[in-house]
């Protein structure tokens, strides 16, 4: 169990143990596989953090709702679970520098002549009803023809069959699409739309621990291991935005 907010770095260095809140059912960030082992984008970061401290890691499964209470009650030393660093969230827990960026990307067939966002004008673009991409198409790309589906799988099938010219989805969903579709598709090489930043969360009041985590993230995101992890789970290099 983690101690209070102050002195976490010293506690971890002395005990050689660190408790980290992670997702167990949220691919590609964190899942528990059939062997009972945690794996995923966030899990790579957690293991690398523990290694940097010479500590044994204890994973504690968390959910969207339990992440912040876990920190406030000292049940974990740090949460690494796709925590978007919203301003209101930063009023109750300390947020590190970003270790990842989310956003919306556009996928097209590999042989498509669509190269930049402006090329979407007049094209059929799939998105999921009620999603951020659906709103983006309406507000930022009124010249595109939005084709809205109830499920991501339907959007993918529409792209496969040529019913749409492109689809817009989040970074994490696009990573799964790239895995399933392989060389049949490509992602537009353009900045992500509606970007958001993702941080580690820690309990308020321990600046030394926060400083260490910021330093770790900075070094990890410029490392080969960090770039390999980004490519494995999100299908792209570490964005310049967070280096």
From TrEMBL:
Keyword tags: Signal, Transport
DNA-binding found in the keyword field: no
Pfam families: SBP_bac_3
GO biological process: amino acid transport
SMART domains xref list: PBPb
Residue ranges of every copy of the Solute-binding protein family 3/N-terminal domain listed in the record: 17-237
Record GO cellular component, one term: extracellular region
Keyword Transport tagged: yes
Family the UniProt entry places it in: Belongs to the bacterial solute-binding protein 3 family.
Protein name: Solute-binding protein family 3/N-terminal domain-containing protein
Taxonomic lineage from the root: Bacteria, Bacillati, Actinomycetota, Actinomycetes, Mycobacteriales
